[in-house]
Amino acid sequence: MELKGRKVIALGERDGVPGTAIADLVKTAGADVVLTLTQCYV
Hints:
The protein has 42 residues and is of the alpha+beta class.
C-alpha cells in the first residue's frame, strides 16, 4: 500500500494489536503518524 506523504491516526486495542505497532508499520510504508492511541474496548 502506498502511504508515502499521507497522515495517519493509529488506533489500537489493548488485547489486540497496540497502536504503537500499527504506527511503526505505517511509518515503514512512508506515512506520517500524527496520533497513536491504544484503548481498551469493553
